[in-house]
Write a structure and sequence with these properties.
homodimer; 219 residues; seven-stranded parallel sheet; 18% strand; globular
Chain lengths: 219, 219
């Protein structure tokens, strides 16, 4: 029983810091998106495409979470947007306490949209608040259409499911209707956005949703 | 400091149970392989292909680890091999204590090769012993060639790297030489086996390695 109590306290402490992070973001009218996915599903590619598509429309900042290395932050920095790398030192997810100093480093006053790329993982980051306003999972078609069934915690915890790599559909055994059916059963409110970061297909719906998010008075 | 001590004790307790699991496997001359990968990289597909290719050569058993569902165990059961599903209840990896009762359920006396499919995750399962004799990671070409750089803990912890989905290489920006270079830098002893579970290409080298493992007197 003692162990359970400790875990609850850790989660509670995280939630308190996450709430402080969100208050900080609200003060500067910055909308934060927590981007989650398996390794290699296309988090950095989507982020790069988003920066490119929204140039002149929204001012973007980024936080890159990884177990090691800063290769993603270096890539994002080439676009000119402010970016902070967080290395978790082997940890399988970001938490609110890791995000806090990154928020303090970033010029939030000048940022409309903060994209937080979590560690590549479909288990650990699900449901752990960072201070974000919305949660997004990127599913990738080569991973197969059964992932919502096998990682329900993640697919339950998100507002939007981006289905990336639709350019590979002709070469894969991926049933989009079956995938959408699983999401509808688990999380019927979730928006599903099929895209290809390689060809650009479908990205308009994604960026329009982000613009809509950033135009709400609550944000 | 107290927290660090607790974590060390947990790992130590796991290692003790893992050693007992390995002793049990050694008694029955069963070689155990810990199969790790991102979600959707092809763990179950490789397992199904392996059972098919080794029918009449090795007697196989399987343990399927998932956060939820038993869809993988149901698939594997169609091949006729004995299989046990372990649901971690949201946990991001198997541990030695979860594997123990599965070993007790399986007819180990009749099993030459036990394939343990870990939870889909490139972070948590790395380096946590289950009782296995060898560790394998399956990397998937659509994930990109930079994964060893971003998940070094996993690529350091394995004996063999299977590179799956090579049938998709013509449609991807995946540089096999760059990938192999990263592995050579991190873990020069690791064997690299490019395969396609879709077409069967490259699987002979994989099954030959498994046959060789099972023919060693130590196993």
């Amino acid at each position: 029983m003692a162990k359970v109590t400790i875990i609850e306290q850790v989660t509670k402490a995280n939630d308190q810091i996450a709430a402080q992070n969100q208050a900080l973001l609200d003060q500067t009218k910055t909308v934060a998106v927590n981007l989650m996915a398996s390794p290699g599903a296309g988090k950095t590619s989507l982020l790069m495409r988003t920066v490119e598509a929204l140039r002149g429309k929204l001012s973007i900042g980024a936080i890159e979470g990884d177990t090691a290395s800063q290769v993603d932050a270096d890539k994002v920095a080439t676009t000119g947007v402010p970016v902070i790398q967080i290395n978790t030192g082997g940890g399988c997810r970001l938490d609110a306490n890791m995000v806090r100093p990154a928020l303090e480093e970033l010029p939030l006053d000048e940022i409309d949209l903060l994209l937080i790329e979590n560690v590549g993982n479909l288990v650990c980051p699900a449901g752990l608040a960072l201070g974000e306003h919305v949660n997004v999972v990127i599913a990738s078609t080569p991973e197969g259409d059964d992932k919502p069934y096998k990682y329900p915690g993640m697919f339950l915890a998100v507002d939007t499911v981006v289905v990336n790599k639709i350019d590979l559909l002709p070469y894969l055994d991926f049933d989009m209707a079956a995938f959408e059916g699983l999401i509808a059963g688990l999380n019927p409110e979730a928006r599903i956005l099929p895209v290809s970061c390689a060809t650009g297909e479908g990205l308009d719906a994604w960026t329009e949703w982000l613009i809509e998010l950033c135009s709400k008075p609550a944000c």
